[in-house]
Design goal:
This protein is mostly beta strands. The protein is built from one helix and 57 strands.
């Protein structure tokens, strides 16, 4: 068989034993049509050059018609079997899957083209075995280990010279045991290598060659390492209440650090953490810290920091006052080391305020909605310079002093004007009388009651907003609360009458001034308590302003209610004859009224009332006087009544005849009571058909009078 490039010249021989298939009765099958075809098999074994069984060799049975190969592996005895092969031609390939042995085709062929063909017949069992040749070896030199053999150091492998093209791999060993994962050229010596020896194996590999592994010499036993360190320092402020922190710096990775604090070189009991809270027991002492590093495989190492200045006694400053514009804030440093000098700096939202370096500060409008804080810096020779910051105030509230408008008088509304406050502020109010809070008086308006009379009123406005200072601002006091009343006007509201202003009840000792108005316009010269109504006030409404004054009390002006409009009226007159049977008529005269009613009085007694302006006299009214009262009304005016003059007595309207056939002057109507007309009396008027021939029994001034007395008119 021929050699593959780079392979050793020696190759094993492959043998084939092919047995003819004997079908029942010893007859050999001649065709598929004569007898059903049966599957065949190929089996064999694989060994090395000296006959040793090779396990896990891949055996591929490859059909020559290009269909898929069947693959099997050798067992621990180097044997294999491929069954269920259809009759046909096959080639067999053996692959040990590594450079130790060279792969080949049956029968000792280096390539598929050179391989012999096995013809599998119907139901036949065939054998194909192989002996694989060893591959060529890689040459190399013994590797060396470079580096300090101590914990914390890193060793490096120097592999030496190897066959060109070889790929090198590494494996480190500690005390002869392979270290899992230690396959790099470098190897870090950790604590678990302390006191142990180290070596490295270098393996060279290359396609077509068997790998070669060469071990280095064992090192000396691994020595303890030396810690890398920095001298510690202390951060923080050396003042009572502050915390100091030990800054250890950079040490060897994994080093465990422990701490011990000292005061004036004396170890502080229990102070073994990286931080130290300075208590009053440490005041006036210098502090330092010792840091000790420990790491398995390394020697322990202790380093000490420089000492701090002496620990100062300090206090947290406090701000007093309300954080509002115009208010004074004051900082109190508190108790510090004796003779400490102080410096101050005020801040608005942590930004320093220019020139604000005194112990007091007054916020301005530019500081509204900002928190005010202050730092106090204490200095004293030999001690730490300490800066302490006071807690910040709530946000600064912008506000105005409230003002009260209105008149301080019982029943009159006062209004609190809060002025300008920070946007979003919730405002509440509380009113006071002579400094005492008035129960329930919490609105921005307030009407004093009789309980507050003669007292001075103030209002306090309180502004609140989450995160802001709560501010309470008080107004100036009012004058004393006056007792006042709404004036009233009495009188008849018509031209010609006099109205009177009544102030009603005011604070005792109050003096009054008056001003009358017509339809809201002042009436010139009308400054007395009375007003005589003239035609200038016709159809107008009258008011009066009464102004009350008293020293120390509010000057109060109160306006009366409007009157109805001022009416014009006339005294009515009565028209008609005062004769029984006559009809009287009421003559109104000039009025503002548009609707009228009438009351007729006879002999002083009401005889008739209603809307009729006329009144008929009857026999019952004879010898009695008459008057009429006219009542005029109109929307917006006072309903007024005027009485007429009283008349003389009502006459009977009849007289005795002057002669048998004539009536006296003034009584021209003849009343006839003839026998023929005993129940039907007749009167005749001048010019009537029977007037001249009638002899009257009674004479009448008018036909109405005749009718009153029971007569009727003649038919002719």
């Amino acid at each position: 068989m021929s050699l593959l490039p780079g392979r050793a010249p020696a190759r094993a021989l492959s043998t084939l034993v092919a047995a003819a298939l004997i079908v029942g009765g010893g007859v050999t099958a001649t065709s598929a049509s004569a007898l059903e075809l049966q599957a065949g098999s190929i089996s064999g074994s694989v060994t090395d050059a000296v006959g040793g069984a090779l396990a896990d060799v891949a055996v591929s049975v490859v059909p020559t018609d290009g269909s898929a190969a069947v693959v099997a592996s050798t067992d621990s005895a180097g044997a294999y079997t491929v069954s269920d092969l259809a009759p046909g031609e096959y080639k067999v390939h053996f692959d040990a899957a590594g450079p130790t042995f060279l792969d080949e085709w049956w029968d000792d062929a280096a390539s598929e083209a050179e391989a012999s063909v096995i013809t599998v017949v119907d139901g036949g069992a065939h054998e194909a075995s192989a002996s694989l040749s060893a591959g060529p070896m890689i040459a190399g030199t013994v590797p060396q280990i470079i580096g300090a053999v101590a914990v914390g150091s890193t060793l490096s492998a120097e592999p030496g010279a190897w066959t060109e093209g070889a790929t090198l791999s590494y494996q480190w060993f500690v005390d002869g045991l392979a270290v899992a994962g230690a396959t790099d050229p470098a190897f870090a010596l950790t604590a678990d290598t302390l006191g142990k020896t180290v070596r490295i194996d270098v393996t060279g590999a290359m396609d077509g060659f068997a790998p070669t592994t060469l071990p280095s010499q064992e090192t000396a036993r691994v020595a303890p390492g030396a810690l890398v360190y920095q001298v510690p320092s202390i951060s923080g402020t050396a003042g009572v209440g502050f915390t100091l922190t030990a800054v250890a710096g950079t040490w060897t990775a994994g080093t465990v650090l422990s701490y011990q604090w000292f005061a004036n070189s004396t170890a502080i009991v229990g102070a073994t953490s990286a931080k130290l809270v300075l208590t009053s027991a440490l005041k006036d002492k210098a502090i330092k810290v010792a840091v000790t590093g420990s790491l398995p495989g390394y020697a322990d190492l202790r380093k000490v920091s420089a000492a701090t200045p002496k620990v100062a006694t300090v206090a947290t400053p406090k701000i007093t006052g309300t954080a509002a514009t115009g208010n004074t804030l004051t900082v109190t440093p508190g108790a510090w080391t004796a003779s400490t000098g102080f410096a101050y700096q005020w801040y608005a939202d942590d930004a320093p305020i220019t020139a604000a370096t005194k112990s007091t500060f007054v916020p301005k409008a530019t500081h509204v909605a900002k928190r005010i804080s202050v730092t106090v810096t204490g200095t004293k020779a030999g001690y730490a310079t300490v800066t302490k910051k006071a807690a910040a105030t709530p946000k600064v509230t912008g506000f105005s002093v409230p003002k009260i408008t209105g008149t301080a008088a019982v029943g009159l509304a006062l209004t609190a004007h809060r002025g300008s406050w920070t946007a979003g502020t919730t405002i509440t109010y509380q009113w006071y009388a002579d400094g005492a809070a008035i129960s329930g008086a919490t609105g921005y308006t307030f009407r004093p009651t009789s309980t507050q009379r003669d007292k001075r009123l103030t209002v306090k406005v309180t502004g609140k907003q989450s995160g802001f200072a709560t501010v309470t601002a008080a107004s100036a006091a009012t004058a004393r609360v006056a007792t006042v009343a709404t004036p009233s006007i009495s009188g008849v509201y018509m031209v010609g009458s006099t109205l009177t202003a009544k102030p009603n009840t005011w604070t005792t000792g109050t003096s009054f001034a008056y001003q009358w108005f017509a339809d809201g316009a002042p009436i010139s010269g009308a400054t007395r308590s009375t007003l005589a109504l003239s035609s200038y006030q016709k159809d107008k409404q009258i008011t009066v302003i009464v102004t009350g004054r008293k020293s120390g009390w509010s000057t109060v002006a109160r306006t009366s209610s409007k009157t109805v409009r001022i009416a014009v009226t006339s005294a009515p007159t009565i028209g008609g004859s005062l004769i029984a049977g006559s009809t009287l008529t009421a003559r109104n005269g000039t009025w503002s009224a548009t609707g009228f009613t009438y009351k007729w009085y006879v002999g002083g007694a009401l005889a008739a009332s209603g809307s009729r302006s006329t009144f008929t006299l009857s026999k019952a009214h004879i010898a009695k006087s008459v008057k009429v009262v006219v009542v005029g009304s109109r929307s917006g005016y006072q309903t007024l009544s005027r009485s007429s003059a009283t008349t003389g007595a009502v006459s009977s309207g009849k007289a005795r005849p002057a002669s048998r056939d004539n009536c006296p002057s003034g009584y021209p109507v003849k009343g006839n009571q003839t026998t023929r007309h005993t129940s039907d009396w007749i009167y005749h008027v001048p010019g009537g058909q029977y007037y001249a021939v009638t002899d009257p029994e009674e004479c009448f001034a008018t036909e109405a009078a005749a009718r009153v007395w029971g007569y009727r008119a003649s038919l002719r």
